[in-house]
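input
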Amino acid sequence: MKFLTLIEIEIKKILPWLGTLFIGLTALSTGMFYRSIGNYKNKMLPEIMSSSVSEYVQSNGKLSLVQIFDSTAFLPLSYIFAAILLVCVAFYLWYKEWFGASKRIYMLLSLKGQRFSIFLSKLVIILLSVFCFYGVILINLGIGALLMNALLLDGTVANQLMTTMLQKSYFIGMILPLSISDFIYKIAFIILMFSLISVFVLCDRSKKIFGLIAGAIFGIANIALFIYTKTLYLYIDERFFVDYGFVFGMSTVSILICAWLLNKKVSI
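output
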């Protein structure tokens, strides 16, 4: 089967899940932005009515998107929770094909061609889903900025809301990559996570109970090694090489194991 056909199959399978997740996140985010901005408006109105907008701004400064976003943990936590749900959806859609007697996976394994393309097609869809997730986050932040300009009084809103948000927010760096190097690291980390899930799934499929145990041990060992690298006291350049070395090295090992399992161990 052609690789693009596999991609099309995966898109049709994951699209309803992504649509539900992203629409739900946008609705929740918009509601929380609206409520938080309304609270700030209610606080500033009495002061402005007793003086003026210029005096209020001179005393308190203009309101920025950073203040709205970082003032409550619910907004950033909702984005982080959505990212976790995205990982869970990826695991569910990957694992359910191998659990029981799925006709789709039997069909894919029986077709001519490289079995590894099954893994690659799923990985490509996961990466595209992550890019869409980043785009939805930026759209939601843009909605927050629009709500600020629409609900708050003229002269009380800071300029360059989005730029300041990406530069100064404490939480946004946990959700979005803010530099090229950070983007590369986050994408490599996502590939590692997907590869670890795939090793677990394929080990389980290959040897049942023994494979399930082996896959779990491999995943736990990677998690333990990752935590260990984070406890090391390193210089900045050393930290760079350790972090990138871990994600690229273990991603390569995991992908090679997946290729070996698909081609040599997994049977119809």
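quick obs: Residues 178-268 form one domain.
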